[in-house]
Amino acid sequence: MDDGWFVDARCTNCDVARQLAPGLIGQRDGRSVLLRQPRDDEERAALHAAAFACHTRSIHRSARPLDPALDPFPMRLDDRVYLCGHNSRQTAGANSYLVRRPTGNLLIDTPRWAEPVAARLAELGRVSDVLLTHRDHAAHGRRFADRFGARLWIHEGDLDAAPDADQVIRGLEPLEIAEGVIVHPLPGHTEGSVLYVVDDRFCFSGDSFYWSRTTADVEVAETVTWYSIEELAASLTRTVDRLSFEWLLPGHGDRKRLPVGEMRRRLHGLAVRTRALRPRPVDVSAVRW
């Protein structure tokens, strides 16, 4: 059945669509392309997810508008973690997440600002905190925090991107900001980049590291390290022994769940590899998704 799906030329090669519709959307000449039309309802649902997440609205089904009733977001990834979808141009198409917790839900980075998007997140319960991983993802933080009556968090190194933050993370030492929620400062991608580890299960890594389908391993985006690759190597060396989690949930790049011991082994390998890297010109097209 030919559904008439296609990807238009506005695509920025952010990889989000390929994460959500693998086998249907691939990469060619520096952007996503449709590999084939969907064959069943499951594949149509995957393309709808990709379309509702796409920050440039590049994924279409002929000339028909998307049906809001087919919006799958927020999409459950685990018993308590949801992918928000509705990625924003103002965060370079970054993924964001919501964690349900009895003491108040956590929004890690944000989708694009829109009241219907916020309302759907609110249906999952009270949001107590909006946790920003770094400056690149700060664009809508204040709007969502005000909508939910939540506290907005950012590290002092990136405070100029969210000067009205309610809580400022300082220094380089890990800090428990709520029961079971640890923030690990990780300067490198930006001066104020951090990781949030929740309940020793979920690591929200921002743009510090991600799962690469190309290498089948955890990687740093060395060609999109705005602050210092040497600082990122030092941060990883200082931090990896303190990390324990099974879910890697980045802003850019793919997600991955592994046993805690296997994830720790791969992080140690990443720290070693990153120490060997040297500064390179910024080149988004060189990232190994």
Would you give an account of this structure?
The chain has helices at 16-20, 41-53, 115-122, 141-148, 229-239, 260-275; strands spanning 5-7, 25-28, 31-34, 59-61, 75-76, 81-83, 97-99, 105-108, 127-131, 151-155, 167-169, 175-178, 181-185, 194-198, 202-206, 210-212, 217-219, 247-250, 256-257. It is globular, with a radius of gyration of 18 Å. It is 21% helix and 24% strand. The mean pLDDT is 96. The chain folds into two domains: 6-60, Alpha-Beta Plaits (2-Layer Sandwich), CATH 3.30.70; 73-276, Ribonuclease Z/Hydroxyacylglutathione hydrolase-like (Metallo-beta-lactamase, Chain A, 4-Layer Sandwich). A hairpin with a 5-residue loop joins β18 (247-250) and β19.
Work out the strand percent. 15-25%
Report the total helices. Answer: 6
Low-confidence stretches: none
- CATH class descriptor of the largest domain: Alpha Beta
Question: Alpha-carbon distance between the termini?
Answer: 30 Å
Quickly count the domains: 2
InterPro entries: Metallo-B-lactamas, RibonucZ/Hydroxyglut_hydro
Pfam family, one: Lactamase_B
Keywords: Hydrolase
GO molecular function, one term: hydrolase activity
Descriptors:
289 residues, 2 domains, six-stranded mixed β-sheet, alpha+beta, hydrolase activity, Metallo-B-lactamas, MBL fold metallo-hydrolase, 19 strands, RibonucZ/Hydroxyglut_hydro, seven-stranded mixed β-sheet
What is the topology?
Layout: E1 5-7, H1 16-20, E2 25-28, E3 31-34, H2 41-53, E4 59-61, E5 75-76, E6 81-83, E7 97-99, E8 105-108, H3 115-122, E9 127-131, H4 141-148, E10 151-155, E11 167-169, E12 175-178, E13 181-185, E14 194-198, E15 202-206, E16 210-212, E17 217-219, H5 229-239, E18 247-250, E19 256-257, H6 260-275
Helix pairs in contact: 5-6
